[in-house]
Structure to design on (669 residues):
């Protein structure tokens, strides 16, 4: 396997423009002759399907949910980044480019990141035109808020439901194309294999999740936009249905899988409550704009809080450790996610955690200072220059409710605690995966004709994603990159004609899928799918989680290999193949998670450095910060599938060249 990133020559600010100018085109009258499959209908998939449909291609879009409106993009809360400099605070395309590279700990591809920054402003214009109700200031102009890892306000938002509103915009665009007959929507369908003909992606095998029917679908190109793989940890902020199957199936067909060990732990999640919990809830990073994070300075105070003998409001200001403000004065509570997460783990490991769960892990996110500050400002704005304490508090709460009301309501419904009155309890949890299928500059995998977009690819975030950049990448890929690069590939396909699903390659792929399904249904094991998924998650969190070391990673590789054998011999899947069977769906997905988990541990073991979300305990500086090894590990690690034994996978390296940004130690102090 040879990795060719296809990065254009020239200045970083001209690469994308020059590249677009020289891509091949498909004439409008030829586009209806060409079929494109899009797997996944979140922001990246819906945007790609809508754009290609608008251009005139025949598009088949697939999602396992009952509607594209249920894609996990809906769960993104805080906002979407764009370099428009509306706040006049020094932002620019270069600044967004720089912050993203630095935030990713200098492990992202320069050219892709600069392109992302370039098109970011277009995304906002597109979404406003679609009717996305972004927040506006008192003059009617679009408002911005801050996010971690930046010193400017560049995040556009719609209260605490930005992902939902953006997804509705993309859904309206794809719905229009469905109405025009250019996009054919396949709800409740799951892709279970990729079909290659003469080395090119030519279609997929999908299962109708309602009837169980196995279907063949052909196309001239396939786009995978199926999201990330955070559920390999079982407990994560991802929707329960989020999975890696589409990406893993194309990996098995020859697509390299890059940087699987790069996983983001989000610092602002509701702590785990018990062993029977099935998922975790994310509280938006935007809350770090207004909340201050702290733990008690005294261990005895933390113990009393955990025991229910003391309330956080009873802890005096001098007895609180605002540890992010103490350690990182330049950025304070707005340090990047990986930095904030490790800092929370550090204080909890030292005995200062405040949540009375099995691990005593939790810290406070406190809004009392913001309530007082904004309350006074609101009173002054109303002409009241001598407000009472009650008036200040009431106005401050009103300000918070306007900014974050739905988030506060959600927190109270889950925890039965009022965050206006008592600080939120938060702790880091698995959230986003920066690794994914390797793609070149055109977002094409190592399989010709198979493109990968959004969180499913590895391309833009390096070892750590800055907050509010996931929505930006998904829409950038779907609206502003793939329509150009996919068309360039399809320009050579106008004479191909309709691709028959009667080809032997389709029959072979369908048989592979049916054999696996029959194997699980006929297994007669004794343990549920969830049993094995939880076992995998336990191994992953403890040994391939926030802190990793050589011994733990080696143990994880062996333990997951044994778990795989036990899973295939002892899993019990009830029901039949020709019906709605959620347990069968889960079994097929967990089989892929187990193999991916082993590869993640292998990738983490070979990367003998700490960078971003990949923290090897052996590689840290005297202050506990990440210690990169730029001489030996400044590369993308792309793995090639070599058969059922994952330990045989072969590592390929794409060297990262930094021509326009000077690599430096990442410092947020």
């Amino acid at each position: 396997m040879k990795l060719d990133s296809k990065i254009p020559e020239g200045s970083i600010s001209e690469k994308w423009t020059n590249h677009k100018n020289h891509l091949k085109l498909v004439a409008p009258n030829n586009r209806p002759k060409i079929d494109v499959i899009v797997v996944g209908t979140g922001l990246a998939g819906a945007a790609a399907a809508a754009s290609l449909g608008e251009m005139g291609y025949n598009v088949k879009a697939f999602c396992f949910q009952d509607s594209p409106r249920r894609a996990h993009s809906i769960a993104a809360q805080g906002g979407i980044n764009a370099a428009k400099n509306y706040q006049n605070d020094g932002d620019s395309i270069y600044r967004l480019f720089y912050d993203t590279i630095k935030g990713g700990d200098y492990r992202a591809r320069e050219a892709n990141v600069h392109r992302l920054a370039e098109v970011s402003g277009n995304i906002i214009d597109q979404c406003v035109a679609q009717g996305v109700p972004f927040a506006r200031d008192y003059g009617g102009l679009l408002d911005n808020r801050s996010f971690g890892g930046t010193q400017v306000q560049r995040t556009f938002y719609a209260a605490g439901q930005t992902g939902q509103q953006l997804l509705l915009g993309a859904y309206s665009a794809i719905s229009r194309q469905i109405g025009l007959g250019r996009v054919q929507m396949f709800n409740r369908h799951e892709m279970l294999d990729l079909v290659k003909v003469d080395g090119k992606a030519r279609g997929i095998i999908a299962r109708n999740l309602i009837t169980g029917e196995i279907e063949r679908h052909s196309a001239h190109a396939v786009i995978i936009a199926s999201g990330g793989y955070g559920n390999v940890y079982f407990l994560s902020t991802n929707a329960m249905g989020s999975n890696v199957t589409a990406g893993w199936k194309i990996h098995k067909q020859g697509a390299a899988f890059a940087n699987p060990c790069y996983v983001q732990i989000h610092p602002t999640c509701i702590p785990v409550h018990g062993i029977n919990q099935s998922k975790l809830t994310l509280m938006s990073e935007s809350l770090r704009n207004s909340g201050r994070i702290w733990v008690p300075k005294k261990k005895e105070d933390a113990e009393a809080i955990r025991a229910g003998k003391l309330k956080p409001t009873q802890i005096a200001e001098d007895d609180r450790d605002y540890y992010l403000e103490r350690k990182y004065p330049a950025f304070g509570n707005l340090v990047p996610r990986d930095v904030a997460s490790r800092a929370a783990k550090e204080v909890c490991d030292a005995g200062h955690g405040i949540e009375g769960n099995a691990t005593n892990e939790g810290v406070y996110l406190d809004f009392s200072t913001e309530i007082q500050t904004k309350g006074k400002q609101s009173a002054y704005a109303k002409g009241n220059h001598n407000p009472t304490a009650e008036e200040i508090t009431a106005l401050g709460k009103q300000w918070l409710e306007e900014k974050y009301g739905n988030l506060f309501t959600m927190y109270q419904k889950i925890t039965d605690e009022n965050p206006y009155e008592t600080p939120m309890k938060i702790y880091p949890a698995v959230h986003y995966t920066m690794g994914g299928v390797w793609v070149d500059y055109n977002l094409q995998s190592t399989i010709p004709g198979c493109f990968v977009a959004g969180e499913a690819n590895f391309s833009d975030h390096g070892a750590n994603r800055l907050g509010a950049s996931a929505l930006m990448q998904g829409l950038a890929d779907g609206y502003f990159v793939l329509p150009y690069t996919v068309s360039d590939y399809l320009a050579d396909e106008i004479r191909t004609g309709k691709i028959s699903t009667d080809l032997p390659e389709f029959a072979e792929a369908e048989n592979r899928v049916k054999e696996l399904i029959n194997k699980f249904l006929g297994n007669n094991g004794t343990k549920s799918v969830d049993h094995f998924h939880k076992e995998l998650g336990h191994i992953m969190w403890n040994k391939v989680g926030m802190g990793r070391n050589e011994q733990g990673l080696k143990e994880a590789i062996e333990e997951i290999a044994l778990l795989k054998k036990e899973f295939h011999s002892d899993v019990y899947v009830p029901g039949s193949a020709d019906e709605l069977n959620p347990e069968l769906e889960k079994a097929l997905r967990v089989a892929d998670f187990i193999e991916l988990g082993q590869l993640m541990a292998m990738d983490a073991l070979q990367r003998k450095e700490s960078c971003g979300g990949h923290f090897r305990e052996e590689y840290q500086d005297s202050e506990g910060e990440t210690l990169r090894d730029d001489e030996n590990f400044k590369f993308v690690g792309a793995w090639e599938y070599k058969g059922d034994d994952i330990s045989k996978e072969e590592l390929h390296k794409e060297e990262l060249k930094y021509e326009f940004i000077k690599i430096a130690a990442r410092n947020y102090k």
Summary: The domain at 502-633 is CATH 1.20.58.100 (Methane Monooxygenase Hydroxylase; Chain G, domain 1). The longest strand covers residues 424-433.
